[in-house]
Design brief:
By secondary structure, this protein is mostly beta strands. The protein has a single domain (about 1-280), classed as Beta Barrel (Porin). About 5% of the residues lie in helices and about 65% in strands. It has one helix spanning about 1-20, and strands at about 40-50, 55-70, 75-90, 100-115, 125-135, 145-160, 165-180, 180-200, 205-215, 225-240, 240-255, 270-280. Strands 1-2-3-4-5-6-7-8-9-10-11-12 form a 12-stranded antiparallel barrel. A hairpin with a 2-residue loop joins strand 7 and strand 8. The protein is globular. About 30% of the residues are buried.
Length: about 280
């Protein structure tokens, strides 16, 4: 009987350890870091669909190579490409030019440092910093230079030996964008949260939410828009391979086409779908 109890405890501890470095979300970042010397390659594919009228499809392709440096520090590099297909598109207020284009969109570098571990401490806490350069406008698909400095405060709390994973991110992203030869500033902010439940040893199901806004010229008293997304997330992991699918419809936004509340379809879309496929070495 004691042997059975020991085996059950060992199994629970092992399952928690194996799940310690999972990222079961498509949009929400976890507080885990890769073990020293471990590599991970992830392909991110995000489809953004639907404006007020017309045909709109934006595709973001991000190839990530990640490396654990120390027990608390990891770094990564991203190579980004984008595809846009726009025809007769109107947003809440903006009219977009027709476009059918695929192109290289620059890259970025990630630095993530873990202050508290979600497995060994009361909760997980990490700081994330990602400077990057873009050569294609994310919404319109036009050529244009921008430099971003994404900074994230990451909180994570695990329950039931890691069977339930919850996480919260506060995102601050200053941006420099070149317009007609001059550099203009913008500040984006987002609050994201997620919960993921382990159904089987390999499958997780959960939900993610994001509230995003932006402040032109970094003036905090003049928000450009608000957009709230909420949707399900499905995660699969077996050995060193994993995949995550998040379906993210916009639930509410401001201003809409009437200038009130509804869906904001200038800086955001009706629906986002993100697929992450990765393998660890």
């Amino acid at each position: 009987m004691n042997r059975i109890r020991i085996a059950l405890v060992a199994s629970l501890l092992a399952s928690g350890f194996l799940a310690a470095h999972e990222e079961p979300f498509g949009y929400v970042r976890g507080a885990q870091t890769e073990p020293p010397g471990e590599w991970e390659v992830t392909q991110w594919t995000t489809a953004r669909m639907g404006k007020e009228s017309g045909h709109y499809l934006g595709m973001d392709f991000n190839t990530e190579i990640e490396l654990g440096i120390t027990r608390r520090l990891q770094m990564a590099a991203y190579l980004n490409t984008r595809y846009h297909h726009l025809r007769d598109v109107e947003g809440s207020e903006e009219v977009f030019e027709d476009r059918n284009r695929f192109g290289l969109d620059g890259g970025s570098v990630e630095i993530k440092y873990q202050l508290l571990s979600p497995d060994n401490d009361a909760f997980g806490l990490s700081l994330y910093f990602e400077p990057g350069y873009h050569s294609i406008r994310g919404i319109s698909g036009q050529s244009g230079s921008s430099i971003e400095f994404e900074t994230i405060l990451i909180l994570q709390k695990n329950f039931f030996a890691g069977r339930l994973v919850t996480a919260f991110n506060f995102v601050v992203e200053p941006e420099l964008e070149r317009e007609d030869g001059d550099w203009e500033t913008e500040l984006e902010m987002a609050w994201t949260a997620g919960a993921s439940w382990r159904l089987t040893p390999h499958w997780r199901i959960g939900a993610e939410a994001r509230l995003g806004t932006a402040f032109p010229h970094s003036r905090l008293n003049s928000a450009e828009y608000l957009a709230f997304f909420l949707g399900p997330a499905l995660h699969y992991q077996r050995n060193s391979f994993f995949g995550t699918l998040t379906v993210f419809p916009q639930i509410a936004g401001w201003p809409d086409a009437q200038g009130t509340g509804g869906l904001h379809l200038d800086e955001t879309e009706r629906l986002e779908i993100r697929l992450k496929l990765g393998i660890e070495f």
